[in-house]
Amino acid sequence: MRAMILAAGLGTRMRPLTDHCPKPLLEVGGKPLIVHHLERLRAGGIREVVINVSYRAEQIVAALGDGRAFGVRIAWSREATPLETGGGIRQALPLLGEAPFLLVNGDIWCELDPAELPALGDDLARLVLVNNPDHHPQGDFHLDADGRVHAEGEPRLTFAGISLLDPALVAHEPPGAFALAPLLRRAMAEGRVGGHHHRGAWVDVGTPERLADLDRRLRG
After folding, report:
1. Cα 26 vs. chain centroid, distance in angstroms?
2. For residues 130 and 198, is the Cβ–Cβ distance under 8 A?
3. Tens of pLDDT along 59-106?
4. Which of 2, 20, 162, 204 is the most core-located residue (most Cβ within 10 A)?
5. Which residue in 108, 71, 123, 97 sits closest to 204, CA to CA?
6. Residues 23-62: pLDDT tens digits?
7. Per CATH, the architecture of 2-219 is what?
8. Domain ranges of the chain
């Protein structure tokens, strides 16, 4: 299986830290955030990784190279301007191939072992969901007793920024910038999105304060 790490964002919520350093290279626990992802993917048996880049792209490429130093092989998808999540995946499809792939947001930290996720089967997506953090108490989606994800319903869980996706989810969209969320909701309405409730450690590293908290935890 291949994986894609989303690393093309501007990191506006992380300013001023991202004024001169792209968010994926911000350090926690003594190493860049994106290196934690690469190490976890490799430990989970994934060796082929696609990374999309835009803001300060050359800094990220220079830091990671072809991935050999981390036991993986990196293919780079360069975006002249950020294409949002859906558009970034759509552009990277030639690098990802036709099989389902693991998608990881670059600005999270999670202890999930990718091998825990069941195969997609006939689904277009399988979302990793977590208990709602304090900063997002309303959650995102409902996971029912049969493991199906719905846009509406209670109780709600938060999307962890990790998913298994079938390339068909975005393959027929026109190139350019577009969001992934509407496509996921459409697939939910068709009954083709499963969910996995991850109860282990997870952090949305979206602000300097949460970055500092995670750094203290990993060093402690």
Report:
1. 16
2. yes
3. 999 999 999 999 999 999 999 999 999 999 999 999 999 999 999 999
4. 162
5. 108
6. 999 999 999 999 999 999 999 999 999 999 999 999 999 9
7. Alpha-Beta Complex (3.90)
8. 2-219
